[in-house]
């Protein structure tokens, strides 16, 4: 079911981005349907020196920032809390402490304003970013999520639920990019850093393995890729690594792009789908967008990939998923809990 004519304040704090957004769906008044009126993301910089996200640091930083981020989201949208009809919040999966900061704030706001609360699954949120990108998009379609913590393929049918077709058996695609970038001495997050280094590289000089390509598999595996990079680096001395860096980055990135693209296109073909949605932080990757764009153009498949800022973590996607998620009234929402997985 789609809730019509509503204005939602959405909160997302599942990892290291403190996010709030206002999403409206005014389809009932004929003014254009679902859209983000604001989408504020504060990326925590506290983690950079650790080379990865530190859960306790993330919780504290959310606590310090969230009020200001919510105020900014309301003000950028040109609304006040009086205009808000429900509060949406990510409740799973993510870092438990980080999720609890967002959920507690959402409960407090809902209680203070007498509003219902909408608990949203972060992965359904990533897919729902596509509803803001293409206002005409409706299921059924195939959805691929490639992010820092997840890599999976789903068929999405009329109920807007995600039905699993395949997933990674080890690392997520974003995790593989982050770890590869770290091995190459590049920055964090690794996806964009690797892309930058790869821009002037030759992806054909070093070939990296693409796993699980047997005919019937829709699963992914990225651990062999990582090991392969490790062995390559052991064969080279420091000067050689420096010289080969763009080529190593390009070859490594190309292997991730190919692994994702082939499985996504295979799922579309196998399910006889006419639409493919790709979401999650790795969907911001330019070579992946190009590769899928060309293949889908050739096969006549409708491809929807949210803009890069809607691919990485944000609250507009949570608001978009909330348009299709049942509201929980007071006092039931007081019992809602966050779940790490
Ligand atoms: N331009 C890009 N190219 C490739 N990878 C990218 C790009 N931008 C971001 N990423 C990768 O996306 C990941 C972050 O995505 P996202 O914010 O969706 O993940 P997450 O929220 O940490 O994980 P999850 O959504 O699974 O809980 C990181 O691994 C990052 O390296
Ligand atoms: Mg995410």
- Envelope shape: globular
* Topology order in helix (H) and strand (E) letters: EEEHEHEHEEEHHHHEHEHH
Compute the CA-based radius of gyration.
20 Å
CATH homolog superfamily of the largest domain: ATPase, nucleotide binding domain
The count of β-strands is 10
Name of the top-level CATH class of the largest domain: Alpha Beta
Strand content: 15-25%
| CATH architecture label of the largest domain | 2-Layer Sandwich
Q: If strands are numbered along the chain, what order do they take across the biggest sheet?
A: 3-2-1-4-5
Helix content range of the residues, please? 40-55%
Structural category is alpha/beta
The distinct ligands, each listed once, are: adenosine-5'-triphosphate, magnesium ion
Q: What is the overall number of helices? A: 10
Distance between the termini: 26 Å
Mean pLDDT value: 94
Spans of at least 5 consecutive residues with low confidence:
none
Question: What is the CATH topology of the largest domain?
Answer: Nucleotidyltransferase, domain 5
Give a quick account of the main beta sheet: strands, pairing sense, barrel closure. Answer: 5 strands, mixed
